[in-house]
Amino acid sequence: MRHDQHQNGPLEPQDVEELLPWYVTGRVSREEARGIEAALKTMPDLAEKLAQVQREREAVSRAAEAVEAAPPETLQRLLQQVETTRQRRVQRADNRDEAGGWLKGAMSHSVIWQAAFAAACVAIVALGIRLYNPPAPGDLTGGINGSGRATLLVTFQPDATAADISSLLAGAKAVVTGGPGPDGTYLVQVPASQPSDVEAAVSRLQSRQELVATVRPVQ
Amino acid sequence: MDLLSARSADAAASDGQLLARIARGDKDAVTALYRRLERPLFAFLVKTLRDREAAADVLNETMLDVWRQAGRFEGKSSVATWIYSIAHHKAISWLRKRREVELDEDMVAAVPDDAPAADTKIAAEDLTQTIARLMEKLSVDHRIVLQLAYFQEFSVGQIAEILDCPENTVKTRMFYARQRLRALLEAEGIEGAAA
Fold this sequence. Notes:
Chain A is α+β, with helices and mostly antiparallel strands. Chain A has three domains: 63 residues, Transferase, Pyrimidine Nucleoside Phosphorylase, Chain A, domain 3 (Up-down Bundle); 60 residues; 81 residues, Alpha-Beta Plaits, CATH 3.30.70. Helix content of chain A is 58%, strand content 11%. Chain B is an all-alpha fold. In chain B, 73% of the residues lie in helices and 0% in strands. Chain B contains eleven helices and no strands. Classes of the chains: A alpha+beta, B mainly alpha.
């Protein structure tokens, strides 16, 4: 509000009209309200304009009130995501504590310990490389169960919407059976009777990079 | 504290108190704040996006941002203003992504109207319903300012904070929104129903 302009004099007719939408909701200053009330006594057509604003307000409010509540799963999804991020925070804090303590201990000892520390670092890197060993394209055999379904580990892009994910999964006849894990991974089952079906399902999901960040079969 | 007492304590807590608890990692406070804001915020998003599924997604993303950023809230604006500004930003991003932000009032007006003739319509619906129907034809900026002022009952200053624009821009948008509405009413053969 232009308090600076209004406080020392009567409101201009244009100011009064501009403020009417906020006057009807009680969101003008006391000074402005007094100015509008004074203008209502002197401007013959202002009462009708005020009535028009009130009709608009009623229409907007009624239409907004008629909007049904958000689907209940919106809150469930939110709480699930909140829990996931909370666990990540705790995990990060734990990792920092462990790494900090370990580094501090390692750095405070003798040369022998420094050598051991270096060796440990090399071992960790090697272990990381070994752990990060994605299956070769022709190696997608695992996870087909007796009921003709295979399980995939899928992470979705952070900005993928629930609607888009639902549509993607429906198109692939896939269902989410678990997750999200602390890293945001979901267990997704797809119909598969042979390894090539698993490969096809992985390719199909991988082709939607705007929605799917990673996908790999559970071996 | 039993469940009922906890719920009544949540209901009595201010938005600021709930946000402080969220910043400390309290999940129950997330639920309490969500339940408090869900109806009006969801209605605002549905009216802005004209898509319930998208509105639910944006509501979810907004509240997730509240959870993530609660510790960074500086109290320069009210909690509600802050949350609506997050929701508005996300809604506009969604519209841009869908390239619907260009679907302004002119384009909507160009869509053939297969609704019944004016006199038939007015007989079937009252003036309030007519105004509500015609508001759907307004541009997204105009719908937003009408929603925030009339339904959410934010002041000019708060709307300026939510939209991140000067207060005079808010007033100008409101002026043109109402002018456009009047033109739409006149096109339906109703004069003097909106200023």
